[in-house]
């Protein structure tokens, strides 16, 4: 019941449990690329759900594994509204570090394959939408146009006073964060005064800015979630790429699409808690497995 409610309300939370709800019968996904390519050649509306694993191949750290901690803090404990309220300086140092890393990375072969596929199929009257949990800018840098960012963006800020949302790629984001954010456990917090943290530059505001992303425990943007639901209803092929499938509600997207009888192919370096619900599984780096999957099909030459 909790997970069903989480999907309906769009609450971002972590779980390693198997999803409950109206899911398809468990199947044994296959890795027949020729079979997948045949499905791909006939698909008119393709949904590509991407997670942190895609960005990791560009060198962007994830919340898990060896990057689970920033200094002595668990990363997912810093990405909460409570943490930002208690220690905005620490949280901004953490995000300054993440922004600095992301701003210095480039799209990899998986990003580029998705963007090229979208542009190519658009000319054929077919569509590709990227539904991403990633908060970097790499899909856009690669050239993808139809991107729904369910967890927000590292490159945007939101004012806590006036609510203004703005693209912000300054690095550092403000002078007081110059040279701050080092992840090493022996680095002490900077304790930057709140009035020296990123502030709104709209006239007569000067409110405190926060990253415009969905912290754990917050609800997803209802407008984005509505668009995602519409795409899930119309897609006739789904790719789940580089996601651990344990962060809700996004972990439900692929299985719910599969419950309609739509083919769903997972591309990941390993199996996930949702692999058994999908028709196909292609194991390996996404930058290796995805380009041949999305390359021009022989039927497109006819």
UniProtKB/TrEMBL annotation:
It is found in: Mitochondrion; Cytoplasm, Cytosol; Nucleus. It comes from the Eukaryota. NAD(+) binds at residues 51-70, 242-244, 268-270, 286. Keywords: Cytoplasm, Metal-binding, Mitochondrion, NAD, Nucleus, Transferase, Transit peptide, Zinc. It holds the Pfam family SIR2. InterPro entries: DHS-like_NAD/FAD-binding_dom, NAD-dep_sirtuin_deacylases, Sirtuin, Sirtuin_cat_small_dom_sf, Sirtuin_class_III, Ssirtuin_cat_dom. The active site is at 151 (proton acceptor). Its main location: mitochondrion. Its cofactor is Zn(2+). Its EC number is 2.3.1.-. Binds 1 zinc ion per subunit. It catalyses: N(6)-glutaryl-L-lysyl-[protein] + NAD(+) + H2O = 2''-O-glutaryl-ADP-D-ribose + nicotinamide + L-lysyl-[protein]; N(6)-malonyl-L-lysyl-[protein] + NAD(+) + H2O = 2''-O-malonyl-ADP-D-ribose + nicotinamide + L-lysyl-[protein]; N(6)-succinyl-L-lysyl-[protein] + NAD(+) + H2O = 2''-O-succinyl-ADP-D-ribose + nicotinamide + L-lysyl-[protein]. Zn(2+) binds at residues 159, 162, 200, 205. Residues 26-300 form the Deacetylase sirtuin-type domain. Substrate binds at residues 95, 98. NAD-dependent lysine demalonylase, desuccinylase and deglutarylase that specifically removes malonyl, succinyl and glutaryl groups on target proteins. Has weak NAD-dependent protein deacetylase activity; however this activity may not be physiologically relevant in vivo. Belongs to the sirtuin family. Class III subfamily. This is NAD-dependent protein deacylase sirtuin-5, mitochondrial. It comes from Takifugu flavidus (sansaifugu). The gene is SIRT5.
